[in-house]
């Protein structure tokens, strides 16, 4: 059977699909390849299925009830043509990341950066003093920046669901409602939030996880979405407005607990926690500098997982 080449209308093949297939062929299983790439078993299987769709033929086969796979005749031919060239490409990428003048482009939401990243940067700098660090605090565009190759890694609060991006769960955090002390009220349960029905809700710009979840949560206690919204771009601005008595907000619990005396806060135990992920291009998921940085993030943030 002849392996078909992609047609001119077929999307370009992502190198992560080739890398996954290469590892599946070498190890003989999706699970082993998934461990190597730090992705899920299902993601590894999906990568290979996508590659098969692009080439219009089956590349691997598995016995029913077994996780071990074998290559089909087209799969063996395809893998033989990939081997050394793909290894060379991946090795060169790894060398670039370790180059003495290498640059790590890192995306992170502003709240996470302000609270955790001074210590993370200190530890990364101690371990990799020759790596230039470029940070982008732009939560709403992290997904597109990753897909477009504009970032080498990011810490994010969303699961992108893109096969070209590897995401590892670092943990999760709770949210809290913060409000000005000068209002002279004390909330003891979410039912008390109805008292804020005519107050301004200070929140993040559209597209941010905490904004959408906060509006949904408040709607249950206000009889509908908050009537008055004030939108800002980051947690620092949110807290400044709350401290000035201009409204209430929903923020990460660790932002609320670090607030000054001008603010009161109530943990929202019934609200869905926010998951925090470390993301990188799939083909760089085992790059040593990124792996070490991921573990530094996990240890410093100390979220429950």
Automatic annotation (TrEMBL):
Kindly name one Pfam family recorded for this protein. Answer: LysR_substrate
GO terms, molecular function: DNA binding; DNA-binding transcription factor activity
Q: Which residues are in the HTH lysR-type domain?
A: 13-72
Q: What InterPro entries has UniProt attached to this entry?
A: LysR_HTH_N, LysR_subst-bd, WH-like_DNA-bd_sf, WH_DNA-bd_sf
Organism domain of life: Bacteria
Q: Which CDD domains match?
A: PBP2_LTTR_substrate
- Please state what the protein is called: LysR family transcriptional regulator
**Taxonomic source organism:** Celeribacter baekdonensis
